[in-house]
Write a structure and sequence with these properties.
17 helices
């Protein structure tokens, strides 16, 4: 660590833009966010597209700087116009936000990113075709882009594909395939799939009814703070389903905010607001690091 600090301190304005950018990334990983922003700014001034994008993410998520969506939008756009797919995706997303709502422009940039093979953009493009936002709704285009994102390992795309096979119309429905895709996601620890497969086992939908398996899957998802599983489990402990083998247990039910309101309407389930923000902050940092890793 001491050697790394020494190396960073020797950087001059003549340093290569990429060196400045990756030094900024190292500072970010070490939680030195303000230092990282300064290094990103120097790299961006030297023309680093990645640094421009990183600055956009910092201003977007208040990392090392005060949150400023206008600056975030500006930096994202610079990097997007230079062809960086991650920036094209994020600029497209910010164009669909309440402050800059322009679904047509959002669609254009996300499509540019998707056509470069960026899986999150391929997923977002599928959702545009699903909702008809910025483009005419087209279920087949939606499925086309979901499949492309899924093949690149984007779990949310695989999950939505599974949902389409399980809940779609007769032409699209393929329950066996949908269950298989949920099972693959469960093996990877994806909590939304754990929740849905648990519900399938509880109802006997696409699989043989098995309450023990259902409870196990729902508990796995609940351990990941999946709100749907927390609610399902909590309410099940309040009113156990017939034949489930569960017994009424208000103590276990209290882990779910919805059940707290049912059992004790005056209770406040959120005892530490700062911890909630801390969890959100950690997830933002993790997401940023994953993006940097992909550059």
């Amino acid at each position: 660590e001491e050697r790394q600090e020494s190396a960073d301190s020797t950087l001059t304005v003549d340093s290569d833009a990429d060196e400045l950018f990756y030094s900024g990334c190292r500072s970010f990983i070490e939680s030195e966010f303000k230092k990282a922003v300064k290094l990103f700014e120097r790299a961006a001034d030297k023309g680093s597209i990645k640094a421009q994008y990183a600055l956009g993410a910092c201003y977007d998520n208040a990392l090392g700087v005060k949150q400023n969506f206008e600056k975030a939008r500006s930096y994202y756009k610079m990097a997007a116009e230079a062809g960086l797919p991650q920036a094209q995706n994020d600029y497209g997303i910010i164009c669909s936000s309440n402050n800059y709502y322009n679904p047509q422009e959002s669609f254009i940039w996300i499509e540019k990113s998707a056509r470069q093979g960026y899986a999150p953009a391929q997923y977002h493009l599928a959702m545009f075709y699903f909702t008809g936002s910025g483009v005419v709704a087209d279920v087949y285009e939606c499925l086309y882009w979901l499949k492309k994102a899924s093949r690149r390992g984007y779990k949310l795309a695989t999950y939505n594909l599974a949902s389409a096979y399980l809940q779609g119309n007769m032409e699209l429905r393929n329950v066996e395939k949908g269950i298989s895709m949920l099972e693959e996601l469960v093996e990877e620890g994806f909590d939304m799939a754990q929740n849905d497969l648990g519900l399938c086992y509880s109802m006997g939908f696409g699989v043989e009814q098995n309450y023990e398996m259902a409870i196990s899957l729902l508990e796995q998802a609940a351990a990941a703070d999946n709100a749907n599983s927390l609610t399902t489990l909590g309410m099940s402990y309040v009113n156990p389903p017939v034949g489930s083998g569960m017994t009424q247990d208000f103590e276990k039910a209290m882990v779910c905010p919805t059940c707290v309101e049912v059992i004790c309407p005056t209770a406040n389930p959120f005892t530490s607001e700062s911890l909630m923000y801390a969890d959100e902050y950690k997830s933002i940092k993790k997401a940023f690091l994953l993006l940097v890793k992909s550059l």
